[in-house]
Amino acid sequence: MGTTQLETVQEPKYWHLKTVLAEALNTDFTVGEILPNERDLAARFGVARATLRQALEQLELEGRLQRRRGVGTTVAPPRVGVDVTTSRQDWPGTGHDAWQAAECTVAVPSAAVARLLDTEADEEVHTVRRLRVNHGQPVAAELLYVPSSSVPDLPAIEAPSGPALARSVLRELQRLDLEGQDRAVELGSAGAVDARELDRLPGAPVLVVTTRYFSEGRTAAVSVATYRADTCRLTFGDTGDVEISHEGQQRRAS
């Protein structure tokens, strides 16, 4: 990145600097590369460090940069596409699934998940935790809730705990005929566990995708996937339609 002095422009100086930096990220840097420190960057572009920080913050919001604790500011990998349609009908763990099974526990889910599963309030279910990684960095964490009725033959399988049990639950789930699924998308903030796994601070913006899988006329599993908002983009089907809900009202946008 060569020395560039910013000329007087009508748009805010930090916004013009953001454009210049974005072009440099495309030509002079590679994914994961650490940017020079703020003092050097500010001197190179002839701007105040406060202006530089505004530009860097904007690029971080747009997903072009990542600030990693103990590392510094690095060039972010391309955004991960999040399919918010139900055109593809696959069980988790099949096909070209990009998720990695991390562990599986048996516990009582939250009341909201129990309602989606139509299970008793105190009924324990298999909870599979999976991670999605892009360029070596975690970009999403998922909790997949599977009631025992969906995997009745699981106890006969020798898979004591951890990733082995998680993979066994996924294999048994795939024995069912998938009849359909529905999906809801909403903005949220990262809880303590998700923030730790996604290398974000608690409260960081996230995209929460909740999917219900149907088989034999009932909900066979529920997935709650939490994506880093700065690393993903929504992708739509052929129609381009998506339902947007807000305070009890719905509207359809294209």
Concise overview:
Helix content is 24%, strand content 34%.
Gyration radius, in Å = 22 Å
Low-confidence stretches: 239-254
Shape: elongated
Report the structural category.
alpha+beta
β-strand amount: 25-35%
Taking the alpha carbons of the first and last residues, their distance comes to 40 Å
SSE topology string: HHHEEEEHEEHEHEEEEE
* Major sheet: 6 strands, antiparallel
Q: Strand order across the biggest sheet?
A: 4-5-6-9-8-7
How many distinct beta strands?
12
Helix content: 10-25%
SS field, number of helical segments:
6
Mean pLDDT comes to: 81
Task: Identify the notable features of this structure and list them briefly.
six-stranded antiparallel beta sheet, alpha+beta, 6 helices, 254 residues
Question: Explain this structure to me?
Answer:
The protein has 254 residues and is of the alpha+beta class. The chain contains 6 helices and 12 strands. It has helices spanning 13-28, 38-45, 49-61, 111-117, 162-173, 192-197, and strands spanning 65-68, 72-75, 80-83, 99-107, 125-134, 137-146, 180-189, 205-215, 218-228, 232-235, 242-246, 249-253. The strands form 4 sheets. It has a 6-stranded antiparallel β-sheet with strand order 4-5-6-9-8-7. Strand 5 and strand 6 (137-146) form a beta hairpin. The longest helix has 16 residues, at 13-28.
